[in-house]
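Submission sheet (multi-component)
Chains listed below:
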Amino acid sequence: MRILIAEDDLTSRVALAGILRKIDHDVIETVNGADALEVLKRPDAPALAILDWMMPQMDGMEVVRRVRSLPTDRPPYLIMLTAKGEKADIVAGLDGGADDYLAKPFDPGELGARIEVGRRLIEMQAQFLAARNALAHEATHDPLTGLLNRRAILDALARQLSRERRRHPDGLAVGICDIDHFKLVNDTYGHLVGDEVLCRFARILESNLRPYDFLGRFGGEEFVVITPLIEHLNVRMLYQRFLSAISDRPIPTKAGQVPVTISIGVKIWSADEDVDAMLMAADRALYRAKSAGRNRICLADEFEDGY
Ligand SMILES: Nc1nc2c(ncn2[C@@H]2O[C@H](COP(=O)(O)OP(=O)(O)OP(=O)(O)O)[C@@H](O)[C@H]2O)c(=O)[nH]1
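Outcome: structure written.
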């Protein structure tokens, strides 16, 4: 484990570093609180620090206070090293944000044991964070395609719309992309190949997104693309890219090449619609695209399909 030592007294620092290196820790040494704080602010900061209480420039307690005010979900484990053995001092140290303390002169066995307690807590914290991140990912992503799920893409749309209202930029469009006759793909090749088509389909759409577009799986074989119109692009041309990327070449699967086309219904935001109104309008346009023969784009509010 990487451990930071902040200790101005040379003898004590060398002894401490020697013991820690002997038990296979990677030690970073600093001689004052200000330098220690700089090390602890780095993105690759050590997970555990042993801070002397009395140091020049900035004392150990001040380092603890400042580290505890930093925004991070991986706070370091902080052990105060102190000649102050009084109960009141120890309580003040722990109250101030230290995780543990070690009284000088320290006993190497006790030092090792306290480091081990810290290591266990750091490990538990890492496991907790990994589980939390996995849960957050699960709650917002579709397990089959890895895209944003229905809830997350709706949230993204709500956020984008409120951003548009505040900043009045160039606008935004929402497209619902639906694979044509997907039931036939399942019936012809089987459900597993259907799943494979959905995954590859997602990757193809993804590779045609611009950095500021959003893509999510709305459900089944229906996908939603949110496209900010910051380049004053022709909306139809923007969605034509997705349509062509799918229909220009069949999708390779374990069962061979599966030709697929899509229909897209697009709604351009016109300053007053909310999420539901946008989606309803895009869905109606999609219905028209399907009725008109599929493999095409229909824009909501467009009298003629014009495709
Ligand atoms: N393999 C697979 N199939 C799915 C999944 N979700 C939905 N489907 C299938 O998608 C098909 C959708 O069929 P329909 O709603 O009739 O639509 P369609 O056949 O694509 O016809 P149109 O949309 O009218 O062109 C159904 O057969 C569903 O079982 C999935 O996760 N995996």
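Remark: The longest helix spans residues 108-140.
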